[in-house]
Design brief:
homodimer; alpha/beta; Amidase signature (AS) enzymes; 14 helices; 12 strands; 39% helix; 13% strand
Chain lengths: 449, 449
């Protein structure tokens, strides 16, 4: 045990490439650490030790035979259990799908394998990637929630089980666990990472995202999985750069940030408010508070209308086919979603483009929007997965969001969220890079509620 | 008065081009005929004699100065009054818009003008192109409805006021008036004719169409107005041929027709059923009865769900802003539309592509689908505009439909409808051409109920 599991993906890929260690050694350290911690954290719905080691050995063999190496060669990655894997069960966090074995890998999983990744296992999702909390615990304090729905992905990366994991966001399911678990999380532009093979709950909202302990790791993985999905009319159709190349570029100036309280501000914890306000003060002239015009103030309701409408469409049938295998929380929610009117749904869809235009206009004058990633740190107990109020609004707009583990509130991580224009992930990465560098060592204070 | 108004658009364009007569002479004959008939037919919401003559004189001047001539040079065209015209009011059939003067021509009107057309005036639409009957009368029997909502366009062309008119269809508003008034009507593929400048009531359904007394006239006008609309995500994006060139081509064989009763069959009049069945018998082996697989049997409900949902979205606000200026019929309908659930709407949208695939598969083996254009001839009286039950299903699928005035029931016209694949208008035109030729003189019987 050399603690290889603590390396970032970039470091581990470099170590394997330069033969400092093998993928099998890396995977064995990860498995050993998982074995040690899983009882407390419960981040995994499926790990098959032998299968993981076999993949690593195959990667090592390929390398020793002089094969060309993908960007993620030999790197273990966790896959949220709503994303199909052909060699592991995909149960969508529900007994309805117990033991389900998909015939094919999801497009994004196939892309990861092509890049050389080792699929380490399936990470715990809340039931149907929805609201009912999972068994997973927060590694910073196991009495606290890791958030949801990508609970296992956020916690496993934070707890050094693996360097990278895939999650999904419909409300706040990538960014909120990133904030609660103190890791980097990217919810990219809608459809940038292909959704074919994802258990869909809302075609307008569902977005696959990634977790890592460093910004560079997110940049690394995104290059391997930003591919079009011809079967999905919401697939991102703009051009996609090399994020690694773009990341090395100088921004030309220190980025300008538009600080938005957002309509979620009233729900934020006082200490979280103080922490981010202090941060904007440190940024001085590089950060200015802005307000978006109407109908931005209704954005939380618009998101809710679309989520409820499409959720009823995709999940409503389970109320009829498997009522007893649904949790009471999900059942109650789906029952109430059935009544959402088409009129509310269409009004929200119409508002979406209108509001996005005002976000786009704002970002003509700024590099990124800056706001809280969650209203506060991970809540104590497991009654809920915490509030997604700072996330649904951006998911609704289909814009890229990045959570950066910059703040500490009540002794727990509190993420700062950067938001950009659709399809401008590379700009978001550079803004985050410059921001982290500037604030390094200046945010050690623990804010308490 | 030389009765130039009785010419087809193709004949009139040729007459002007070869200087047999001027556009002004043509327009004056049309105006004179309108003046004579309008008291009975009431097809027009706006005709400005001087403005029409000025346009004609300008066209004639352009020609005498040796200017190049568009395909519709000097030809009068009627515009349904839900389509914007910059030099005439556009009132959407409602006192809410009394005297409204749009700043711009609709894209399709601008295209007509570029092709040299004279915008003759605005034809009567039902209130909001919806269900409440208009004042227009059927020229075949003024005690009967001309259908709706493109009542004035269908009646004015049938009654020789003008050779060509634009209409719109959300349920059956192009094809039904074509059938009732005994003219040719084309509801093309969704978005083939641009909708910018149309008073929208359903983005998934609203389709601009055309009326003429000959098939060749529809071919002629379609070439001038099949242009993309970058502002409309439902604009047709496939390639568009020269319909006039395609129309001259030999089909290679006499077309094969799939006769579909459709789920509307139970509502058809007995004599209309007999008439079309007799027609299919005359066609013999060229026509075969077919049945489409599930969920085709629910298509009428799917169409209704989308119509109601989007109608509530676009028109719902008038319930609040102008409740007293809405007819009771429309008000009642909009009130009930408010309750349609998003779940029903999304289920219908999903079914749409599924059903279209089965239509596409059927049309691998046939040139066109053949069915009734309306359940019977124009109804007596003006309580309703008649049933759109044979039309909504095809509007729902966004496929091109052509009504051909082939049959006679109760002494009134009964249209036969041809339906094709999306974007295959040219094939539909050729099928209709061959069908009309084959049946010429064989369908003189008057079927009575």
């Amino acid at each position: 045990m050399k603690d290889l599991n603590r390396l970032s993906a970039v470091e581990a890929a470099e170590g394997i490439r330069t033969k400092k260690f093998t993928s099998e050694e890396l995977i064995r350290d990860c498995l050993s650490h998982i074995n040690e911690r899983e009882n407390d954290i419960q981040a995994w719905s499926y790990v098959n030790t032998e299968l993981a080691i076999r993949q690593a050995q195959k990667a090592d063999r390929h390398q020793s035979e002089g094969g060309s190496l993908g960007a993620l060669h030999g790197i273990p990655i966790g896959i949220k259990d709503v994303i199909d894997t052909k060699d592991m069960p995909t149960e969508n966090g529900s007994p309805i799908f117990e033991g389900r074995r998909p015939q094919h890998d999801a497009l994004c999983v196939a892309a990861l394998r092509r890049a050389g990744a080792v699929v380490m296992g399936k990470t715990v999702t809340t039931e149907f990637a929805n609201i009912n909390p999972s068994k997973t615990r927060n590694p910073h304090n196991i009495e606290h929630s890791p958030g949801g729905s990508s609970a296992g992905s956020g916690a496993s990366v934070a707890d050094f089980h693996i360097p990278l994991a895939l999650g999904t966001q419909t409300g706040g399911s990538v960014i909120r666990p990133a904030s609660f678990n103190g890791v980097f999380g990217l919810k990219p532009t809608l459809g940038l990472i292909p959704r074919n093979g994802l258990f869909l709950q809302s075609h307008t909202l569902d977005t696959i995202g990634v977790y890592g302990r460093t910004l560079e790791d997110l940049v690394l993985i995104l290059d391997s999985i930003s591919i079009p999905d011809p079967s999905d009319r919401h697939s991102y159709t703009g051009s996609v750069p090399s994020y690694q190349k773009e990341y090395l570029k100088y921004s030309g100036h220190f980025p300008k940030f538009a600080f938005l309280e957002t309509p979620a501000w009233a729900e934020a914890y006082p200490a979280s408010k103080s922490a981010i306000i202090k941060m904007t003060e440190i940024l001085g002239r590089s950060c200015k508070k802005e307000i978006l015009p109407s109908p931005f103030e209704n954005i939380i309701d618009f998101h809710a209308a679309i989520f409820a409408s499409e959720n009823a469409h995709y999940y409503g049938k389970y109320l009829d086919t498997h009522p007893r295998l649904l949790s009471e929380k999900l059942r109650t929610r789906l029952e109430s979603n059935k009544d959402i009117t088409a009129r509310a749904y269409l009004a929200a869809l119409e508002a979406r483009e209108l509001i996005y235009q005002s976000v786009e206009a704002l970002l003509e004058n700024y590099d990124s929007i800056l706001c809280l990633a969650a209203p506060g740190p991970a809540p104590h107990g497991f009654e809920t997965t915490g509030s997604a109020v700072f996330n649904g609004l951006w998911t609704f707009l289909g814009v890229p969001c990045l959570s950066i583990p910059l703040l500490t509130v009540d002794g727990l991580p509190q993420g700062v969220q950067l938001v950009g224009k659709r399809g401008e992930e590379e700009k978001l990465f550079r803004s985050a890079r410059d921001l982290c560098k500037k604030l390094d060592g200046k945010l050690d204070e623990n804010y308490t509620n």
